[in-house]
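An instance follows:
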Amino acid sequence: MKPAALSASFSGPFALGTLSAPDQAPFPGLVVPGRRVLDLRTGLENPALTARGIFERWDEFLPRLRALAADATGDAWQPLDGLRVHAPVEPRQVFQSGANYRQHVIDLEVAHRAPDDPRTVEEARAEIAEVMDRRAAEDLPYVFIGLPSAITGPYDDVVLPSWAEQPDWELELAAVISRPAYQVGVEEALEYVAGYTIANDLTDRATVFRRDMKAIGTDWLRSKNAPGFTPLGPWTVPASSLADPGDLRVTLKLNGETMQDESTKDMLFSVARIVSYASQTSQLLPGDLVLTGSPAGNGMHWGRLLRDGDVMDGSITGLGAQRTRCVKEGS
């Protein structure tokens, strides 16, 4: 489903996307206000160019993208209407930050309490609040790996697997990496970020924790990586177009009702800290995604999980909006 009214809202003079005409192959596009698109294979004179290829040569291409957007005239530009909007980039790696919003983790702890938990709600909230404050003081983010195959477009249907008993939403700010980053410091980490996009990191709460052996811990493969469990986009907005990634509004509506509405100010660890932390172990590559966690207001908190027919509208300040409909597997 593609809500045309949402398709071209973003901060700055341009954004990047991956689009296609009916029955045509996807192409990397330069999108400007006024709902016009330039096929960057033509604009950058590279017939084989992909969205990832743009990030692989980000420092070279960025000035040219600015120049093209400043003079958005000519027959090569086409209307956005009628084009399908895909996920804006195909990463090789997806780094996901868990437990990064203070209030979100406190709410989850309360929602996951065992029936025989002797603590009151207030005691449980106070205890996990102390844990979160200690994590912040110790400066130790929590990062794990997701699969690119879970990514889908910002307006595509989300198929709820038959085995997913508690499918939940988690809208997140995602950073797109611009050049190889390995063991970079916090002070320089944002120099490796090309821009930002929106990710809805769906999670089946029933399979987060292993039931057969609690010592194994969390099962992120099972709970987060079903096909289509990461709607992405619609756009990558250059970092220079956002004043402060640490002060953006993250909002998710379910069937028109606001469920998440929080600022990225509630993050324990900044984008720079998470990028730096992930790079201490792994080399981040151009086009890779770094998800930064989700704020309070998930389905477990509300006691309302996703089901067939639900429509999610997700938006982040300056990055546009996505809309996805949930469909039951096999329907």
Observations:
- DSSP finds nine helices and 20 strands in the chain.
